[in-house]
Write a structure and sequence with these properties.
Elements lengths: L14 H24 L5 H30 L4 H21 L5 H32 L1
Helix pairs in contact: 1-2, 2-3, 3-4
Bound molecules: fe (ii) ion (FE2) (2 copies).
């Protein structure tokens, strides 16, 4: 089962950015599926940590790209936007640090909850403002 489902509430209104966000969510779901399949009781902790590390890297790369564009265009809301990116990355780190071998289901509930909540707000507010400034 997918970790997160793309929903209209995630939309920021710019079709190509929405598409990019959708691709990001699909990649997260793909990794989630692979980690679930590889996850044996013995190797759970390593698999989960590696998987969370990959998700963190993927999201970090997307954020780095947005932050570069913001710096290039001298976007006023840069600091606040960057700070909000940092919050999600910290949350994923916290979940990563709390993983123990037998917490697969708990960790994944936490991850799905915190990412859906965060994406639902961030995409529709911070990303919408920045991408409309960028394209307009
Ligand atoms: Fe974004
Ligand atoms: Fe963003």
């Amino acid at each position: 089962m997918a970790l997160m489902t793309w929903k209209d509430a995630f939309k920021c209104g710019n079709p190509s950015v929405d598409h990019e966000h959708e691709v990001l969510i699909n990649l997260i779901n793909e990794m989630h599926g692979k980690a679930g399949a590889d996850c044996s009781p013995d190797g759970a902790e390593d698999v989960i940590k590696q998987y969370l590390g990959e998700i963190h890297a993927l999201i970090e790369a997307h954020f780095a790209l947005e932050e570069k564009i913001m710096r290039d265009i001298g976007f006023k809301g840069y600091a606040a936007h960057k700070e909000d990116h940092g919050k999600l990355l910290d949350e994923i780190r916290d979940i990563m640090e709390s993983v123990t071998g037998d917490s697969w289901e708990d960790y994944e509930k936490d991850l799905a909850k915190s990412m859906s909540r965060w994406f639902g707000v961030h995409f529709a507010t911070y990303d919408r403002d920045f991408h409309s400034a960028h394209s307009g």
